[in-house]
Description:
By secondary structure, the chain is mainly α. The chain has two domains: 183 residues, Ferritin, CATH 1.20.1260; 118 residues, Ferritin. It is 75% helix and 0% strand. The chain contains eleven helices and no strands. Helix 4 runs antiparallel to helix 11 and helix 10 packs antiparallel against helix 11. The longest helix has 31 residues. The radius of gyration is 19 Å and the shape is globular. 37% of the residues are buried. One fe (ii) ion (FE2) binds next to helix 7 and helix 8.
Amino acid sequence: MKGKEFIRFSLELNLFFGRIMKEHLIFMAIALPIINSDYILEADTLKRSLEELLMEVLSISKGNLSKESLDSGEFVTKYTLDAEKKVEDLYGICIDKELTKSTLDLTIEKEDHFYNFEGYVYDLNRRIINLLMDVIKFKEKVIDEVLKCELAIFMYPEMLEHILEEAKFYLKLLLDIQDKNITEEDILKREVFWNYIMEEHALFTLGLLDPSEEDLIKTAHELAKTFEELLKKTREADKDKACEISRGNLKATEGMKEFNTSAVKGILACEIKSLINPLLTDHLLREANRYIRILNEFLKEC
Ligand SMILES: [Fe+2]
Ligand SMILES: [Fe+2]
Protein backbone atom coordinates (compact mmCIF):
# COMPACT_ATOMS: atom_id res chain seq x y z
CA MET A 1 0.00 0.00 0.00
CA LYS A 2 1.45 3.37 -0.94
CA GLY A 3 0.65 6.87 -2.11
CA LYS A 4 -2.93 8.03 -1.85
CA GLU A 5 -4.17 4.72 -0.49
CA PHE A 6 -1.59 4.72 2.31
CA ILE A 7 -2.57 8.28 3.21
CA ARG A 8 -6.29 7.62 3.18
CA PHE A 9 -6.01 4.37 5.14
CA SER A 10 -3.76 6.02 7.77
CA LEU A 11 -5.96 9.07 8.25
CA GLU A 12 -9.19 7.08 8.51
CA LEU A 13 -7.63 4.61 10.93
CA ASN A 14 -6.26 7.38 13.14
CA LEU A 15 -9.43 9.47 13.10
CA PHE A 16 -11.45 6.48 14.25
CA PHE A 17 -9.10 4.77 16.68
CA GLY A 18 -7.34 7.92 17.94
CA ARG A 19 -10.66 9.16 19.27
CA ILE A 20 -11.54 5.72 20.64
CA MET A 21 -8.23 5.66 22.52
CA LYS A 22 -8.66 9.09 24.04
CA GLU A 23 -12.16 8.17 25.18
CA HIS A 24 -10.88 5.01 26.88
CA LEU A 25 -8.63 7.31 28.92
CA ILE A 26 -11.59 9.55 29.74
CA PHE A 27 -13.57 6.51 30.94
CA MET A 28 -10.65 5.40 33.07
CA ALA A 29 -10.01 8.85 34.51
CA ILE A 30 -13.61 9.36 35.59
CA ALA A 31 -13.83 5.85 37.04
CA LEU A 32 -10.82 6.19 39.33
CA PRO A 33 -11.40 7.19 42.94
CA ILE A 34 -9.59 10.31 44.14
CA ILE A 35 -7.07 8.27 46.14
CA ASN A 36 -5.55 7.33 42.76
CA SER A 37 -5.03 10.92 41.67
CA ASP A 38 -1.64 10.06 40.13
CA TYR A 39 -3.38 7.61 37.77
CA ILE A 40 -6.07 10.15 36.98
CA LEU A 41 -3.34 12.61 36.05
CA GLU A 42 -1.52 10.04 33.93
CA ALA A 43 -4.73 9.18 32.05
CA ASP A 44 -5.42 12.86 31.52
CA THR A 45 -1.91 13.58 30.23
CA LEU A 46 -2.08 10.70 27.74
CA LYS A 47 -5.53 11.88 26.64
CA ARG A 48 -4.21 15.40 25.97
CA SER A 49 -1.30 14.06 23.91
CA LEU A 50 -3.76 12.00 21.87
CA GLU A 51 -5.94 15.06 21.33
CA GLU A 52 -2.94 16.99 20.00
CA LEU A 53 -2.06 14.25 17.53
CA LEU A 54 -5.69 13.91 16.49
CA MET A 55 -5.77 17.63 15.73
CA GLU A 56 -2.76 17.12 13.49
CA VAL A 57 -4.49 14.22 11.72
CA LEU A 58 -7.56 16.38 11.25
CA SER A 59 -5.60 19.28 9.81
CA ILE A 60 -4.57 17.15 6.83
CA SER A 61 -7.74 15.06 6.46
CA LYS A 62 -9.90 17.34 4.34
CA GLY A 63 -10.12 15.94 0.85
CA ASN A 64 -8.22 12.77 1.75
CA LEU A 65 -11.00 10.62 3.19
CA SER A 66 -13.46 8.35 1.47
CA LYS A 67 -17.11 9.33 1.27
CA GLU A 68 -17.97 5.97 2.86
CA SER A 69 -15.93 6.72 5.97
CA LEU A 70 -17.43 10.19 6.34
CA ASP A 71 -20.97 8.86 5.92
CA SER A 72 -20.49 5.90 8.25
CA GLY A 73 -20.64 7.79 11.56
CA GLU A 74 -17.49 6.09 12.81
CA PHE A 75 -15.56 9.31 13.55
CA VAL A 76 -18.32 11.32 15.22
CA THR A 77 -22.10 11.10 15.35
CA LYS A 78 -24.69 13.80 15.78
CA TYR A 79 -24.73 12.90 19.50
CA THR A 80 -20.98 13.13 20.20
CA LEU A 81 -20.78 16.82 21.01
CA ASP A 82 -23.77 16.76 23.40
CA ALA A 83 -22.40 13.62 25.04
CA GLU A 84 -19.03 15.32 25.59
CA LYS A 85 -20.66 18.41 27.10
CA LYS A 86 -22.71 16.26 29.45
CA VAL A 87 -19.68 14.25 30.58
CA GLU A 88 -17.73 17.46 31.22
CA ASP A 89 -20.60 18.85 33.30
CA LEU A 90 -21.18 15.66 35.25
CA TYR A 91 -17.61 14.49 35.85
CA GLY A 92 -15.50 17.64 35.61
CA ILE A 93 -13.09 16.29 33.01
CA CYS A 94 -11.95 18.56 30.15
CA ILE A 95 -12.68 17.37 26.61
CA ASP A 96 -11.41 19.13 23.50
CA LYS A 97 -14.67 19.93 21.77
CA GLU A 98 -13.02 21.91 18.97
CA LEU A 99 -11.69 18.58 17.81
CA THR A 100 -15.22 17.24 17.59
CA LYS A 101 -16.52 20.34 15.80
CA SER A 102 -13.71 20.13 13.23
CA THR A 103 -14.43 16.44 12.71
CA LEU A 104 -18.09 17.24 12.10
CA ASP A 105 -16.96 19.77 9.48
CA LEU A 106 -14.88 17.29 7.47
CA THR A 107 -15.71 17.02 3.80
CA ILE A 108 -14.40 15.13 0.80
CA GLU A 109 -13.42 18.35 -0.96
CA LYS A 110 -9.82 18.51 -1.98
CA GLU A 111 -7.34 20.88 -0.35
CA ASP A 112 -3.80 21.57 -1.45
CA HIS A 113 -1.12 19.92 0.60
CA PHE A 114 2.57 20.48 0.84
CA TYR A 115 5.40 18.50 -0.64
CA ASN A 116 6.15 14.94 0.55
CA PHE A 117 2.77 14.46 2.12
CA GLU A 118 3.23 10.71 2.32
CA GLY A 119 6.44 11.14 4.33
CA TYR A 120 4.61 13.47 6.69
CA VAL A 121 1.85 10.89 7.27
CA TYR A 122 4.48 8.20 7.83
CA ASP A 123 6.11 10.35 10.51
CA LEU A 124 2.75 11.15 12.10
CA ASN A 125 1.91 7.43 12.27
CA ARG A 126 5.26 6.80 13.91
CA ARG A 127 4.57 9.39 16.59
CA ILE A 128 1.10 7.92 17.18
CA ILE A 129 2.65 4.45 17.54
CA ASN A 130 5.00 5.76 20.25
CA LEU A 131 2.15 7.32 22.18
CA LEU A 132 -0.03 4.25 21.70
CA MET A 133 2.65 2.09 23.28
CA ASP A 134 2.52 4.32 26.37
CA VAL A 135 -1.27 4.01 26.41
CA ILE A 136 -0.96 0.22 26.25
CA LYS A 137 1.57 0.21 29.10
CA PHE A 138 -0.74 2.34 31.21
CA LYS A 139 -3.72 0.05 30.60
CA GLU A 140 -1.62 -3.02 31.39
CA LYS A 141 -0.40 -1.47 34.62
CA VAL A 142 -3.97 -0.69 35.71
CA ILE A 143 -5.24 -4.18 34.83
CA ASP A 144 -2.36 -5.81 36.64
CA GLU A 145 -2.99 -3.87 39.83
CA VAL A 146 -6.76 -4.29 39.64
CA LEU A 147 -6.41 -8.06 39.30
CA LYS A 148 -4.14 -8.09 42.35
CA CYS A 149 -6.80 -6.06 44.20
CA GLU A 150 -4.29 -3.27 44.79
CA LEU A 151 -6.13 -0.62 42.81
CA ALA A 152 -9.78 0.38 42.72
CA ILE A 153 -11.50 1.53 39.54
CA PHE A 154 -15.21 1.53 38.80
CA MET A 155 -14.80 -0.46 35.60
CA TYR A 156 -15.15 -4.18 35.09
CA PRO A 157 -11.78 -5.95 34.69
CA GLU A 158 -13.26 -7.43 31.51
CA MET A 159 -13.84 -3.93 30.19
CA LEU A 160 -10.25 -3.01 30.97
CA GLU A 161 -9.12 -6.07 29.01
CA HIS A 162 -11.47 -5.08 26.20
CA ILE A 163 -10.02 -1.59 25.84
CA LEU A 164 -6.53 -3.07 25.93
CA GLU A 165 -7.46 -5.47 23.09
CA GLU A 166 -8.72 -2.56 21.02
CA ALA A 167 -5.45 -0.67 21.60
CA LYS A 168 -3.39 -3.68 20.53
CA PHE A 169 -5.55 -4.20 17.45
CA TYR A 170 -5.00 -0.54 16.48
CA LEU A 171 -1.26 -0.83 17.09
CA LYS A 172 -0.99 -3.91 14.90
CA LEU A 173 -2.82 -2.18 12.05
CA LEU A 174 -0.54 0.85 12.33
CA LEU A 175 2.62 -1.23 12.38
CA ASP A 176 1.44 -3.24 9.37
CA ILE A 177 0.64 -0.16 7.36
CA GLN A 178 4.02 1.42 8.18
CA ASP A 179 5.75 -1.72 6.92
CA LYS A 180 3.52 -1.48 3.83
CA ASN A 181 2.59 -5.08 4.35
CA ILE A 182 -1.16 -4.63 4.49
CA THR A 183 -2.36 -7.58 2.55
CA GLU A 184 -6.00 -8.21 1.92
CA GLU A 185 -6.21 -9.71 5.37
CA ASP A 186 -8.67 -12.52 5.77
CA ILE A 187 -12.00 -10.75 6.25
CA LEU A 188 -13.28 -13.54 8.50
CA LYS A 189 -10.43 -12.96 10.95
CA ARG A 190 -11.40 -9.32 11.25
CA GLU A 191 -15.05 -10.30 11.70
CA VAL A 192 -14.07 -12.62 14.56
CA PHE A 193 -12.46 -9.66 16.31
CA TRP A 194 -15.45 -7.37 15.78
CA ASN A 195 -18.02 -10.01 16.74
CA TYR A 196 -16.16 -10.50 19.99
CA ILE A 197 -16.19 -6.71 20.50
CA MET A 198 -19.94 -6.53 19.79
CA GLU A 199 -20.73 -9.40 22.15
CA GLU A 200 -18.80 -7.68 24.92
CA HIS A 201 -20.54 -4.35 24.31
CA ALA A 202 -23.88 -6.07 24.83
CA LEU A 203 -22.59 -7.71 28.02
CA PHE A 204 -21.19 -4.45 29.43
CA THR A 205 -24.43 -2.62 28.69
CA LEU A 206 -26.35 -5.43 30.34
CA GLY A 207 -24.24 -5.13 33.46
CA LEU A 208 -24.39 -1.35 33.68
CA LEU A 209 -28.13 -0.87 33.23
CA ASP A 210 -30.26 -0.23 36.29
CA PRO A 211 -31.98 -3.48 37.33
CA SER A 212 -35.36 -1.82 36.72
CA GLU A 213 -34.62 -1.45 32.97
CA GLU A 214 -35.95 -4.92 32.25
CA ASP A 215 -36.76 -4.50 28.55
CA LEU A 216 -33.36 -3.08 27.69
CA ILE A 217 -31.63 -5.76 29.75
CA LYS A 218 -33.56 -8.40 27.82
CA THR A 219 -32.56 -6.90 24.45
CA ALA A 220 -28.91 -6.60 25.52
CA HIS A 221 -28.99 -10.20 26.61
CA GLU A 222 -30.39 -11.33 23.24
CA LEU A 223 -27.75 -9.32 21.38
CA ALA A 224 -24.98 -10.87 23.47
CA LYS A 225 -26.34 -14.33 22.65
CA THR A 226 -26.59 -13.52 18.94
CA PHE A 227 -22.98 -12.34 18.77
CA GLU A 228 -21.75 -15.27 20.83
CA GLU A 229 -23.27 -17.60 18.22
CA LEU A 230 -22.02 -15.52 15.28
CA LEU A 231 -18.54 -15.43 16.77
CA LYS A 232 -18.47 -19.22 16.89
CA LYS A 233 -19.93 -19.52 13.40
CA THR A 234 -17.46 -17.01 11.94
CA ARG A 235 -14.51 -18.68 13.63
CA GLU A 236 -15.43 -22.07 12.18
CA ALA A 237 -16.43 -20.87 8.71
CA ASP A 238 -14.53 -21.69 5.52
CA LYS A 239 -13.32 -18.87 3.30
CA ASP A 240 -15.82 -19.71 0.58
CA LYS A 241 -18.65 -19.00 3.01
CA ALA A 242 -17.33 -15.47 3.72
CA CYS A 243 -20.12 -13.64 1.86
CA GLU A 244 -22.91 -15.52 3.58
CA ILE A 245 -21.27 -15.14 7.01
CA SER A 246 -20.67 -11.43 6.46
CA ARG A 247 -24.31 -10.89 5.53
CA GLY A 248 -25.36 -12.49 8.82
CA ASN A 249 -22.86 -10.40 10.77
CA LEU A 250 -24.06 -7.24 9.03
CA LYS A 251 -27.68 -7.91 9.92
CA ALA A 252 -26.80 -8.45 13.59
CA THR A 253 -24.56 -5.39 13.73
CA GLU A 254 -27.33 -3.25 12.26
CA GLY A 255 -29.47 -4.47 15.15
CA MET A 256 -26.69 -3.51 17.51
CA LYS A 257 -26.50 -0.07 15.93
CA GLU A 258 -30.23 0.43 16.46
CA PHE A 259 -29.89 -0.61 20.10
CA ASN A 260 -26.90 1.69 20.64
CA THR A 261 -28.67 4.60 18.97
CA SER A 262 -31.70 4.34 21.21
CA ALA A 263 -29.38 3.99 24.22
CA VAL A 264 -27.51 7.22 23.34
CA LYS A 265 -30.78 9.06 22.83
CA GLY A 266 -32.33 7.67 26.02
CA ILE A 267 -29.29 8.36 28.17
CA LEU A 268 -28.84 11.90 26.82
CA ALA A 269 -32.52 12.61 27.45
CA CYS A 270 -32.22 11.14 30.96
CA GLU A 271 -34.86 8.55 30.17
CA ILE A 272 -32.76 5.47 30.90
CA LYS A 273 -31.49 4.60 34.37
CA SER A 274 -27.97 3.23 34.34
CA LEU A 275 -24.31 3.61 35.26
CA ILE A 276 -23.51 4.38 31.62
CA ASN A 277 -22.26 7.84 30.68
CA PRO A 278 -23.54 9.25 27.37
CA LEU A 279 -20.09 9.34 25.77
CA LEU A 280 -19.68 5.63 26.40
CA THR A 281 -22.89 4.77 24.53
CA ASP A 282 -21.90 7.06 21.67
CA HIS A 283 -18.49 5.35 21.64
CA LEU A 284 -20.15 1.93 21.33
CA LEU A 285 -22.33 3.25 18.52
CA ARG A 286 -19.27 4.45 16.58
CA GLU A 287 -17.57 1.08 16.96
CA ALA A 288 -20.67 -0.59 15.51
CA ASN A 289 -20.68 1.98 12.67
CA ARG A 290 -17.06 1.16 11.84
CA TYR A 291 -17.81 -2.56 11.77
CA ILE A 292 -20.79 -1.96 9.48
CA ARG A 293 -18.58 -0.04 7.05
CA ILE A 294 -15.99 -2.83 6.98
CA LEU A 295 -18.72 -5.37 6.27
CA ASN A 296 -20.34 -3.26 3.56
CA GLU A 297 -16.99 -2.69 1.88
CA PHE A 298 -16.37 -6.41 1.73
CA LEU A 299 -19.91 -7.25 0.67
CA LYS A 300 -19.51 -5.06 -2.44
CA GLU A 301 -17.29 -7.83 -3.80
CA CYS A 302 -19.86 -10.56 -3.12
FE1 LIG B 1 -13.69 1.10 22.71
FE1 LIG C 1 -15.32 -1.57 22.36
